[in-house]
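Could you help me review a protein record that somebody else here produced? This is what I was given.
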Amino acid sequence: MTRRILITLFLGLLSISLGIAVFTVLRSMRTDPVRVGDRPPRVGVRTLVVERQPYEEILAGYGLTRALRRTDLVAEVSAVVTWIAPSLEAGGTVVEGEELVRLDPRDLRTAHVSAKAVLRQASASLEARSAERGSIAARLKLVEKEYAASKRELERQEKLEGSNFSASQLDGQVRQTALIERTMVELRFRQEENTSEIEKARAEVALREAELAKASYDLERTVIRAPFAGSVVERNVQLGARVDFSTRLCSLVDTTRIEIPVAIAARHFGEITVGAEAVVRLREGGEVVWQGPVARIAPTINEKDRTFYVFLEVHAASGEASVPTGGFVLAEIRGNRHEGVVVVPRGAFVGERVFVVDRSVADEPGVALIHERHLTVERYLPDVALVSSGLEPGEEIVLTSVDEIDEGSIVRTSDDSIERSSSNDQPEATAAGTKSAGVADS
């Protein structure tokens, strides 16, 4: 019995001894937690402090400028060029109504005098016919009275025939009444004929008036004036040359009224409204040369290149045009507005995640721990993503070297590498890489 107790006690002591030995071995193998300050950072990064704010898309597209008014001045009469304005040279500017070319007026002045004389002759003929009409009307009125009296006398004699009047007297009254009637018929015929002659005379006067007006216009057309203020594109006439009808003299363009059809990718159709603000640059990254509202929007999409046109109209004072005609320009137009989003550059993404900087665990300034974060993106644009959730205002994300870091990486930052997100309230102030492209990303 005593022996069994001793064996049990021995086994228990052995178990305790083994446990103590194992604990001692495990404790000797334990290492303290690694502190961030003890791990040297591998890479340096630039970061961005994000904010939640409104963001307005800027849609970019290209367009070929064209003048709303352009014309070729042509000669409207045949004559010799006697004078050319000094300003009528390619690149010269003219004002509305300015004399540009003068033609020899002598032949046209002679034609004008002749047309005036012919008109006076036709007018005199009309006056004569009109005066004759009055005379015929007066004579016809007297004859009609004589005829009425003669006819009454004839009727009275016919009733009294055989008592106081002989047959010969009655025959004489019949002949007199017939003679008066014939005169009345002739006058009426002459009256109708006179009416026709007056109409012909009036038509002749109208024709001669038109000829005189044409001669006057032709005489005025010997001086060619600028129909509007603008610039001379080219001159096609020389001093002393004879020009004929429709000979082109010069080309003018109104540089104060320019239209720009801007091609925008079809996927943005409906995102631009009439009146939306736009800016125009002569080249990408260049200075703004014009700023104003959208004038019109095409209602259809071009099936070939899948674009639609947004029309801008540039109005400037004479001599102040900043947008050249025929130039290829870049336009940036305000599109959709997004409220309360976080704007993240596309370069900060690795797949659908970004890296957030945690500075709270670092003992050394400029050193931070990296955590990965999955985001909910409302809209991807060519250069940025609009994040609706997953980031809080004030958090700091990594912009560079994202392919060299991962969850738990230690990085080094500097104060001058920290950026802050900002709104794009003004198109001209939008940073490169944050505007939504139009044609380029179609």
User: Anything to note?
Assistant: The first strand starts at residue 43 and ends at 44.
